[in-house]
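## Example record

The block below lists the input lines for one assembly entry, exactly as stored, with component labels intact.
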Amino acid sequence: MSKSVIETPPKGGFSFDLCKRNEMLAKKGVNSPSFRKTGTTIVGLIFQDGVILGADTRATEGPIVCDKNCEKIHYMAPNIYCCGAGTAADTEAVTDMVSSQLQLHRYHTGRESRVVTALTLLKRHLFNYQGYVSAALVLGGVDVTGPHLHTIYPHGSTDTLPFATMGSGSLAAMAVFESNYREGLTRDEGIKLVTEAICSGIFNDLGSGSNVDICVITKGGKEYLRNHLQPNPRTYTSSKGYSFPKKTEVLLTKITPLKEKVEIIEGGGDVMEE
Amino acid sequence: MFMQIFEYNGSALVAMVGKNCFAIASDRRLGVQLQTIATDFQRISKIHDRLFLGLSGLATDAQTLYQRLVFRHKLYQLREERDMKPETFASLVSAILYEKRFGPYFCQPVIAGLGDEDKPFICTMDSIGAKELAKDFVVAGTASESLYGACESMFKENMEPEELFETVSQALLASVDRDCLSGWGGHVYVV
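Predicted structure tokens for the full assembly:
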């Protein structure tokens, strides 16, 4: 309960005021709602010049696909990208938060961000919430110390690997990686392998689907290939579309013209004088 | 008795993009589980002339959330001396919902607005603020499964306002007919 007269916007972090009410509802037999998960197949691998990250693009809400083309490769820094699996709100919020922290750190130090910095920030946050922030991440980037690829689990443990997969389709993708990965892949071979791994996730795992997104990060820069491959195009629509011979019955129509916003410029718009 | 919290009041919301316009529609039923208590309930509210917000799910949380958002928007208007852009508003709603990550509001918002140069913007979120931006249509509520199907087949690119209104209404009415918890007609806003 707020004691002040004006409710000021909160200072940040989580707020637990509705927890008691929700617990009371749970006792009465109310089931809590399902959150949007990203089912997912996310992968990363290190090739000779840097890191390649890949992800599918399906977002699910229970058994329904709610977004057929969502973005799972999140920006962290110009040289670091992160793929997220798990609860969609958690992956988005955690990657946005760490991305802002990295930006502030860059302003402070005047240097390019390092992948281990992002890694530590993420794992500390996730461990702090003991796995309740359900975000499983594949973090990859190239910094002054070279290319790096890490996986981060919702409870805060991390692994450093030459190739990694996460998400419900991780077994399907890992099968492809384990058979075909070798050190010193070229860029095209790497992209081809990542695409194959994601496709194997898309076609064999029910929680992953739609298109393949790829992100190639090298010392020189990054290349974000959104919808690099679209193996599930929408071919079943009829070209003439729907026509409605029987119109909807309208009970009441109200048309409100929008007012033009009038701008008042004082003093002929001159700049302030000394 | 066991029930899903989202099915306590029942709702159906849909927003669609047209050519330099958007339409947002909702059903009109308010119920307490299987009993109907109102047949003219407003689920869609205006934030400013070019931004509308629809809230599905538990009606009490929808009202509280709406009041909080209007408060934040008014503060923004006082500070910035202009209206909020739809993308900014969506980020605000997402942040407010995620703040309550471990004790969430039982609401799913649908945001529809016209941005710069009359470019339509629609988005929906789950109850903890995971944004879903779409270029064609978004749905929310108990009738969402039928709405996905109806919109998927009836949607066309670049519809003019009259055709958009017709499409949205038909999709909404067809879907709520298959859902016992929503119905009693619809409210459609075309901007």
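The first helix of chain B runs from residue 59 to 80. Chain B touches chain A through 46 residues (CB under 8 Å).
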